[in-house]
Structure formats: structure tokens, C-alpha cells
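Write out the 3D structure for:
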Amino acid sequence: MKKFIETIKNIFKIEELRKRIGYTLLLLLIYRLGCFIVLPGIDAAGLAKLQDTAQQGLVGLLNILSGGAFVNASIFALGVMPYISASIVIQLLGVFVPYFRKLQMEGESGRKKMNQLTRYLTIGIICIQGPAYIATLHNQIPSQAFLAVSMLGWSNFAYNLVATIILMAGSMFVMWLGERITDRGIGNGISIIIMIGIVARLPFALAAEISEKLSTTNGGLLLLIVEMIFWFFVLVAAILLVQGVRKVPVQYAKRVIGNRQYGGVRQYIPLKINAAGVMPIIFAQALMLFPLLFSRFDATRGLAATLSNYTGFWYNFLFALLVVVFTYFYTAVTVNPTMMAEDMKRNGGFIPGVKPGKNTVNYLDSIMSKVTLPGSIFLALIAILPAFAMILGVNNSFASFYGGTSLLILVGVVLDTLQQIESYLLMRHYDGLMKTGRLTGRSGM
């Protein structure tokens, strides 16, 4: 505890780090306040039905990523989801389209151009998602809640156009906040905005679980203690999944330039066990909404009910299978062994015992296939843990923190942010956040 207090003091001794943390907290406060500003012309009292539907599935995921703004019909309702969707599309185009692949290899100038294209695509996605969100509001909440339509005599088209423009402005403002945090704050701005929305739900979910367990006379306190212990081990497992890497040794040839010698040292390529991050879970959750389409037909209504039961065997089995499949797919898209082998050869590096060129590509591809299998299975288990928690009696709100998207985003962003803070401490010759002086497994990634 004494070392922790000393570390906090050291953080505030560094002026630049102190200003960056304060700036980040200020922008996050602005974002959280905006999440509670309801779209003009909507009665907030009529949003109860929408809030009841945002517990599971894709709607629940969108609500998590928007920090609750989705069910509040906030001006930030779309949050950073359009930007994330645009980033994924541009990333995939970088694999399949030569023009975007060329931009990726142009360094800083190519990165700036891709960022600009991502912003333009974000606006296009908002133009689709905005009207879809307004249509969802019309279907989910009473018509009397639309004050601008019922009292001011606006047409539905006029109101939808104004609301879409406001949603677009709100989403672009959130994206701007994220970029400001990245440039002048601490950590990755977009990731921190998503994380703060998840963290904002945690105290209320934990308080509801504690209140529910303490009100139970049949060993409620003991059950609560067991839940907290199990949650601790789940957090440890998630940290292992996020930090786990397979280090591939790389030897660089010696080069003499003038009177100085370069190379001749052994380094490592850290291949992540979970290179796909949370994207497989997001894709799988989106696909798991398709069985709901079969509920419209009498012949397939039973199948739809079975595949829509969030705590049922077949739902979780199919969900886990999709997570494994998408983990392999997204890893194959984002990790390019051919490019890694070319960069290695260009810099005079080679893997000991493996010939440069095609053999190196096959070797790296083989290693990625081997480490992705346990990583995908582990990720699938993390994804379905909330269902097991609900079966065992954990409150639905708190159960979402036992795994899935919420837990992985929370762990990943916190670790990355702590690594940046630790880098500032070590640069100023202070001890790091850990006794070893560094967060193991993070600085090399």
C-alpha cells in the first residue's frame, strides 16, 4: 500500500503526465454529460420500453459501447460505433484492395490519408445508422413521446432529418474527443471512451448484486463472497488472454557502418495468442440475431426460440463456435506473415534454422495457427461465461462483467493505459507501477 501511494505521488510530480491525465478526465466528463442529453423533441419519460429491450444481443452491445447513451436516446447515442465500423472496413480493404495496401506501406503520409478516408466513411455509415436508430425509437417508444411531432406539428420526415443531423454531429464530436485524448491525453482516446461507458455501469451492477444477495437469508453473503472470488479468477484469466504472446526469435546480421557496428543481436516477434481482440465476439453477437428472423414463421418458431435463449445450450454452443471461427478469420485478416517476412528480410533479419522467404512465411503461419487454436477456445469460453453466471443466479447486469465484450475491453484498455503511464514514470527514473518496474508482456507489443 505504501508503494502504491508513493507511485501516485510520483505520477503527480511529472507535470506533463499530470496535465495529460487531467485533460483526459475533463474530456471524459464532457462525454459522460453528453450521454444524458436526450435528443430534442423526445420525452425522456417514454424511454422505459427501449431500456427494457437493451439487455442482450446486438442492442445490448451497442448500448455498452455507447455508455448507455443508446437507450437514453442521447445526442451521443451512436457513440463511436460508426467510427469503429469504418475503421474495420478500411482495415479489411487494406488486405484485399491493392490501393489501400499501398497506403498502409507509405508510413505516416499513408496513415494520415487512411485516417481521412475513415472519417469520410464514418459520415456515410452515420447516414445509414442514424435513420435506422430513429426508426427503432419510433417502433419501441410511444408516439406521444415525440413531442416535436405530436405537439409542434412536425412531419416525421422533418423530425427524422433533424434528429439524424444531430446524431451525426454528436458522433463526430465523440470521435473528435477521442482523437484529442489520443493526442493530448493519456491512452487511446476511442478505446478509453468505450471503456468509461463500461466502467460507468459497473458500480450500479455491483451494488444491485450486493443488495440482492444480502437480502437473501439462505447464505446470501457466502454466495456473494464466492462470486467475488470467481470474478477475480475470471479477471486474471482475461489478463492472461490479453497479454499472452508467443515470442519468435529473430537474429539480425551484423553490419558495420563507419566505426559502428549494428545488428548481430537476437530479438523477438511477439505473436499474440488473441490477435483478434474482441472483434470475434462482436461479429458472433451480430450473427446470433439472425435466428430471430425465423420467429415469423410457424414452422421455424420453435427453432428460433431455441437459438434465442441466451442461457440455453444450443445458443451458447453456436455462439462459441462462431467466436472460434471468427477468431481464425480476423487473425488471418489482421496478421500478415508475408509482410512480416518481407520486413524481416529487408532489415537483414532471419529466424534461426528457417530459410528467409517462403519458408519463413510458412513457419510464421504455422505458429499463428497453433497459438490461435487455444486462444480462440479460451476466447469462446470468456464469451459464454456471462450465460453461466446468469444460470448460477448472478444478476443480469453484473453477469455481463463475468466475460464477453465488456470484460475484454475493460482489461485491454486498462492495461494499455497503465503501460503508457508506466513509460512516463520510467523515463523520469521513477519506479514503475509494478515491483519489477514494467508491465510484463505489454511494452513489447
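The first helix runs from residue 2 to 13.
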